[in-house]
Amino acid sequence: MKKIIHTPKAPAPIGPYSQATMVGDVLYTSGQIALDPITGNLIEGGVEEETKQVMKNLEAVLEAAGMTFENVFKTTIFLKDMHQFSQVNAIYGSYFNDETAPARETVEVANLPKFVNVEISMMAAK
């Protein structure tokens, strides 16, 4: 059975989707972009500041589901410009232990919602 996960500590959905859904013991997060959960405004300052906010948003969703980054087994990173990979990877990597890091793919895309530089989604399990 599907359970909707919602927290005010992450941005409210800006369309017909949930922050995350839990099916059994598996959590599927929607892609997060660098929206401030309080104001709904985009965080400015470049890809590094965006990535920090994206990871904070994902952390809030994981916490709402009773999980941490240690529960994450798969991620997808969407980048507007693959030349920004190293900056995103450094921040993203600081949230994971190298020995237990999740599987991941990183893809460059033509555009992202609100024309941001980075969007990340995750799957996690209890």
| CATH architecture type | 2-Layer Sandwich
Tell me, briefly, the overall form: globular
Task: Specify the CATH class.
Answer: Alpha Beta
As residue ranges, the low-confidence spans are none
Detailed description of the structure:
This protein is an alpha+beta fold. α1 runs parallel beside α2 (85-93). The chain has a single domain (2-125), classed as RutC-like (60s Ribosomal Protein L30, Chain: A, 2-Layer Sandwich), CATH 3.30.1330. The mean pLDDT is 97. The chain has helices at residues 47-64, 85-93, and strands at residues 2-5, 20-23, 26-29, 72-79, 103-108, 118-125. It has a 6-stranded mixed sheet, with helices on one face. It holds the Pfam family Ribonuc_L-PSP. This is Endoribonuclease l-psp. It comes from Imtechella halotolerans K1.
Key structural traits:
126 residues, alpha+beta, 60s Ribosomal Protein L30, Chain: A, 6-stranded mixed beta sheet, 2 helices, globular
Could you provide a short overview of the structure?
This protein is α+β, with helices and mostly antiparallel strands and 126 residues long. 21% of the residues lie in helices and 27% in strands. The chain has a six-stranded mixed sheet, covered by helices on one side.
SSE order and pairing:
Blueprint: E1 2-5, E2 20-23, E3 26-29, H1 47-64, E4 72-79, H2 85-93, E5 103-108, E6 118-125
Parallel strand pairs: 4-5
Antiparallel strand pairs: 1-2, 2-3, 3-6, 4-6
Helix pairs in contact: 1-2
Pfam families: Ribonuc_L-PSP (PF01042)
Family: Belongs to the RutC family.
Organism: Imtechella halotolerans K1
